[in-house]
Amino acid sequence: MAEVFEEIALLMELKGENPFKIRAYRTGAETVMSFPGDIIARAQSGDLAGIKGIGEALRDKLHEMATTGGLKFYDYLRGEFPEGIFELFELQGLGPKKVAMLYKELGVASIAGLQEAIAAGKLQDLAGFGAKSVQKLEQSIAFHFSHAGIFRQEQVAHDVADILAALRGHPDVSRAEVAGSYRRGKETVGDLDFLVATSHPEEIMAYFTSQPWVADIIAHGPTKSSVHLASGIQCDLRAVTNAQFPFALAYFTGSKEHNVALRSRALKYGWTLNEYRFASTTPDGPPPPTDIHEEKDIYRALELDSIEPELRENTGEIPAAEEGSLPRLVEMDFLRGTFHNHTTASDGRNSLLEMAEAAREMGMEYLGIADHSKASFQANGLDEGRLREQIAAIREMNQGWKDFRLFAGSEVDILKDGRLDYPDEMLAELDYVVASVHNAFQLSEEEMTNRILKAVENPHVTMLGHLTGRLLAKRDPYAVNIPKIIDACAETGTIIELNANPWRLDMDWRWWRLAKSKGVLCSINPDAHSTDGLHDLYYGMRIARKGWLERSDVVNCLKVAEITKLLNAKRERMAATLT
DNA sequence: GCCGTTTTCGGCCCGACTGTTTTCAGTCG
Q: Å between A6 CA and B26 C1'?
């Protein structure tokens, strides 16, 4: 539904419609995407009143989509332009005006069509297209075919560290930060935004654009430059003064929606807020606040608690900051252990002992081992005999530690029909069980949901692993009704994993507030297949924070005695209910 | 198309860079 609103916005831009109307569709798409609940169920039952950004017209359209699976208004708009026209927007430098012109004047309606038109020399005759524009378009096309455009955190983390070090090492730079979606901890980023405070901006721009990791320069001005790195990611740098730095950092960290909300709040105080400063809206208006040195000073001036970058998505953080009800976000230092880790017994690269020692060195007090079960034969899953040997080895090893403990678990396949890959007697011997789907991804949403619900009903299933099976920028999540799963987990006391592998980051951060509101607990699990993999916990932590999770929501923060008790709680509770 | 201490109509963020259009439009973030 959000994608349909996005495409409607694009089509209306092509038609040259009222830009504010277009923005309303974009806002609507954003609202739908980040809605903390079952928006489809709400739309089906017509229960959409009072959602900010969704007015009468968008409400009706959501209802129509949710009940009929289509939208007449959208079909009508689509009929006015050919199918392939959307891909033209993926080219850097092409916006709605130029795409409309290309289509209207030359009949260009795809990237391939554009290539033909360029080859035939047709673009030169078009108003607004000179030789340089054509050359840039050819570059954009080449770039489009050679790069993905979406990057996972772990793909860019090294670039970010290198660039920050280079900027901070320059004698004319007093402060440097990475901003943008990377700083907000998004699961993937489309570009990287850097910011420096300097009194010699032009020198910094020259320095930045001449670095060895720059593949090509997109733009190079006195205070702003854009380049592509070798990895293909676009990287922007802005230079401001020291006094402007907190404003610019807040501005370029975003999100756009968060900024809009902050600016409109500033207006109520009689101030404008931009990337450089507060200013009075009128000459005789209230004087703007002074003494702004850090981002938190900006929030304080607007009578808001300081808002962590991860929360800046305009999904309720501003009202919460106003009334002092922002969450105290969970931190890396709070983690005492983690679950769902593999060893050489299945498809891991390190032994039980090596994994345990690595966890101890990281300062953990416990580590849960969960190798694959036998149905995952491609991953050398354990049969019951090998699993019992592993359990015995873990019990034996635990004798040797006073300050550390291994938990014997398993990542048990949820079979296609919802049964588990081990019988209950086997599961009962384990300290805990992670239940995950590893095959038959193509089931319908109803079948997949029922499959997982059946696993949740099992008293031995302590937690659900990677709930949607997604691989970021590679494989879509499988269809599953997440609100239903969350309700069942709340009902049964089943924990949901936040898989910290940077490819997965699953369950998605947008669902955690719903889970939290129902009392469902989170386990941040690295799904480590090596000792190095344990460090992926960091990526999971960023996502947990993005999901508004606090120390009390994350089971990894519990002490050994507390977590031991919790791992047994569901079994005991369900046994009590039965008797 | 949405919203409201500016409240049912009038306003909705705006600055940097590029290329081409001799004064600015388009794109981007």
A: 20
